[in-house]
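Input chain follows. Return structure tokens only.
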Amino acid sequence: MPIDANESDLRKTGIAVVGDMPWGTHFCHFYETKEDLLSTLVPYFKTGLENNEFCLWVISDSLTGVEATAALRQAVPELERYLAKRSIEIQSVPEALTREEATGALRQAVPNLERHLAGQNIEIIPHHKWYLAGDAFDPQQVINSWKKKLDEALSRGHDGIRVTGNVGWLTERDWKNFLEYERGLSEAIANERMIVLCTYPLAVRAAAEVFNVGQAHDFAIARRHGTWEVFETPEAKQAKAELTALKDELNHRVNDRTSQLATANENLKTEIAQRKRTEEELRASERKFHNLVDLIPAAVYACDESGRITYYNRRAVELWGREPVPGHNAERYCASLRLYDLDGKLVRHDHTLMADALRTGESHLNKEVIIERPDQSRITVLVSIVPIRNEKNEVAGAINCFQDITDRKNTEAALKRAFQQIQALKDQLQKENLVLKEEIDRSSMFEEIVGRSPALRAVLARVAKVAPADSTVLITGETGTGKELIARAIHKRSRRSSRPFVTVNCAAIPASLIASELFGHEKGAFTGAVQRRLGRFELAEGGTIFLDEVGDLPAETQIALLHVLQEREFERVGGHQTIRSDVRIIAATHRDLSAAIDAGAFRSDLFYRLNVFPIEIPPLRKRREDIQSLVEYFIDRYARKSGKKIRSVNKKALQLLKSYTWPGNIRELQNVIERSVIVSDSEELFVDESWLSPGALRTQAARDTLSKKPHSQIKRMIEAALAETRGRVSGPSGAAAKLGIPPSTLESKIQALKINKRRFKIVYRSKTR
């Protein structure tokens, strides 16, 4: 029978011998002829090769009846007698299958067999090299060899292994062991990716042996009475029945599913027709939308997720200067246009706003970009880019809406320049107004320096020397001695006389505002800073700044002033711009700065920077010869101001003025004369003695004595005065009045000598309790 016919008969048995079989299947085949054997094994291995399974074919060596008889005849000389007496029978067995025959049969069924052989997808091995590798049949060794072949096949990428072995070589001695081997093999491959087919020649096995063999396998197939039959174990039959039931159920489900699919197909056709109508309506709506977009003054273009430009309106072409080349994406097209940021830096095509929107999914609204068009003209555009997302919230593209704002930017630039010019003029006017205002508000008590005393002439000589030098000057002296007047005299005689002279009373400004007053502040630098304000250093640019009472500066402002003196630059409060300063600094104080340095209240490095050229102004009590000239000057000034005529000064009043020690110096004298002019009713000026401090008259000698005492004795005198006045320094009954010195001088000495004036108040309180 041809092999193809046998294959067809095998399929009719209900067992897919040549098709896909479950892994772990172990079955056997009983055959009579070589054709029966090949008709089973060839399709068996063909299916394995098609399923990417490794195939192993173990064949029996050929041994004919003639060869067996000849071998016996050599070993048994009386063989003919035994044969005649039928003591021995040599039965012919089916022809053994050679390797060449097996290969030839496979080549007919598998056209590309050579490729499988070269790729080691199939092997054909003689039985003695497989079952009798150690010259004896070892069941466990053979099972291990099967598993080893399985591991090798899996490691080479095969899905599993399909094997067969012929047992025509078995002797009676190995038969029992082979049956045990078959049972062990069924257990060994139960969960392995392996299929095993054992072939048995019917001519050499009795019926009982065939039955035992069938029991050791999942099922057996045989050719009997011209037909193929299947012998199954009860377990296999049950499994087959279950498979049949499953097949029926599957067919029922397939029919149901087919009906459902037919219904779904009709619904799909209806849906497709509806979708086509919807798409046509959408295209019509899109055309209307494009026509409307072409009418708006803004430029619009859209692109997909890859950056390919999918739409643009007419205005976009006008602003670009040409139409995009078909197939260009936004990056490539923008690269051909050249984009710049507002600083004039070229923007790389993969760093454009559109590229960033497609990459990150972030919108860019109202961003300004400069476009250089093909004709090399540049325009500034205002760009707004919004990503488009699909139903999965993935970026599917973006829309860019941009408009030309070049004219607006040019107008803004012109307005900015005009505003800067206005601001510069405003600042200059503010400077001039402020200086003029200060000149008016701070009009000196003197139009000129009055007096001819040697002490005053010495001061004026130093003023004449330092005025043209542009050096920093430190003026010291008691309150009311005319330190600002000397500062103005230095400025008027300097090369800066045509520039502003700005005064700052450091003691009159709160510590929290002194830095803003000196250096200015930016808008929002602190609460209440609603606009930018120029500081005194900026107002005095090119001129002179007079820092009165510099000894009262807080520590942090001292540091800033030191920086200005060293580097000639500063920053406004709340600002970051460094401002160069060309200002001459003249400082003044009534304090003893050396004592303040010792007390830690004043920086020594700032003192040395200020004390380049010191000028000490003597108190009025040390220039008594100037008192009459000053009295006459003040009488003339305030008489003209009040509209009175005063021709002379009462001699007694003049003597009283000359003998008074003037703790308030020239300022106190000015106040007394102004008061006398106000109350005067005649052409002769009188002075009320009660207007003069009685303590000053009594303690002149004490003051002169105090200045000549050693520090230890001065400390005892001050402590005694503080104890007598219960810790009070100023006032008519204060310690300063008792010692005959100004309160400010006493305060400086208290700090320098490290006297705790509060303990005198505590002592007094404890006594009163």
